[in-house]
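Might you be able to review the protein record set out just below?
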Amino acid sequence: MATATSIRSPFRTTPLSPANIPRRDVGPTDVEFDILYCGVCHSDLHAARNEWAIWPTVYPCVPGHEIVGRVTKVGAKVSRFKPGDLAAVGCMVDSCGTCESCKVGLEQYCDTGGTVFTYNSPDPQKTAPSTYGGYSERIVVNENSSCTCRINSTLPPSRPCSAPE
């Protein structure tokens, strides 16, 4: 299992600080990328401070869910990415992949409750107690998630994916 440098919230009342975190090894349908950019969203700050009663924070928390990076490794069954590609991932990194909602790209409505958010979700891979987000140097995500996308190589990676040409 690899590790990555991150900026994490060790507890709700302490400042964000550097720490090494575990990252899972690349599986058959996984894409690993070095993170070049990660947005800062109000939800990251609320999660770091455990301000949402409906979704309690698991500490340590590594926020960040608007991620752009350069692909470094791909699993044997990956077909949409290759090393060197620009990739992005949003707020979800995996799901059950087998229910009707997931089959049509609606992982946020996963019928089995298997939606895996970029951070602060139970980690189905058991790499850590919860998933760790983009305030880190690298991430491993499932190629098949609808929130994992390849970025056109002519688009500067610092430009938002949704920005008009």
